[in-house]
Amino acid sequence: MLLAIDAGNTNVVFALVADGEIRARWRIATDPRRTADEYAVWLHQLLAMEGFAKADVAQVIIGTVVPRALHNLTVLAEKYFHQTPIVAGQGGWPIALDVPEPATVGADRALNAIAGHARHEGDLIIVDFGTATTFDVVDYSGAYKGGIIAPGINLSLDALVAATAKLPRIAIEAPADASVIGRTTESQMLIGVYWGYVAMIEGLVDRLKAEIGRPSRVIATGGLAILFDKHTDAFDTIEPDLTIQGLALLAAKATT
Question: Which residues pair with 126 in a beta bridge?
């Protein structure tokens, strides 16, 4: 069984994958100072709760956009699972990164491109709702062509609250109705963030499609994809685990 580790700026996701299917997944807040021992205590308990043991893990792959987290995750794989981990991107990628500075492309974006192309034909636009909201263009050959980086919705909300004296902290959710005239401070904030993001998504997707000039499938991934899918027709497909799927495909290539 494969242990796939996706270390993002906000959370680290651990997933057990067998025969291309995710059997279990867990997440923990990203902290580069967290030691391999701390990860192991937490993870081993969760494995046992799901009926798994560390001996079930025969392969480990790590994808990270947080370089400082890599060392402790590598130690976790070697010390507690007795596996030398594959590190996504080390030694190159199995797809073309058709941009001027390919080394700067985040591992999560390359992994999304790998999984998106493997699962869908034609040109793709992948919208990933993470710490940042990214829009990535993958052409019909599977090459990564570039994209857009925008502030993530929770990051935007945190900045709004931090920079103002009287605005309260609110949880992001879909508004109760389609009205964009808020009657309370909280509803006005929610409208601004939620419908503002819907407008950004729809506007940028339309611009990307026009620039690509060919029919393009739009894939949404990340934790908030389902939330926004309720009130926009911009997405053709929701793939919540696209990055993990990319890790699984990369690990499978390494064993063939």
Answer: 136, 219
Query: Dihedral sign, CA of 228, 233, 239, 242?
Result: negative
Q: Which helix (H) or strand (E) holds 57?
A: none
| CA dist., res. 59 & res. 67, Å (int) | 21
Radius of gyration of the chain (CA): 19
Pairing of strands 11-18, 237-238: unpaired
pLDDT tens readout for residues 212-245: 999 999 999 998 899 999 899 999 999 999 999 9
Neighbours of 76 (CB within 10 A): 25
Q: What is the DSSP letter of 139?
A: -
From 189, 154, 183, select the one nearest 168 (Cα to Cα). 189
Closest to 36 (Cα-Cα) out of 89, 82, 104: 82
The CA distance from 194 to 181, in Å, is 13
CA nearest to 63, candidates 128, 129, 111 = 111
- Give, in order, the Cα–Cα distances in Å from 8 to each of 108, 117, 119: 8, 22, 23
Dump pLDDT digits (tens) for 146-196. Answer: 999 999 998 888 898 889 988 999 888 888 888 999 999 999 999 999 999
* Cα 88-93-95 angle, rounded to 5 deg: 135
> How many angstroms separate the CA atoms of 225 and 101, rounded?
28
User: In whole numbers, what is the pLDDT of the chain averaged over residues?
Assistant: 94
Edge-first strand order for the sheet with 123-129 is 144-151, 132-138, 123-129, 216-222, 237-238
The one catalytic residue among 19, 56, 108, 139: 108
Reply yes or no on whether 31 is catalytic. Answer: no
Q: What is the DSSP letter of 97?
A: B
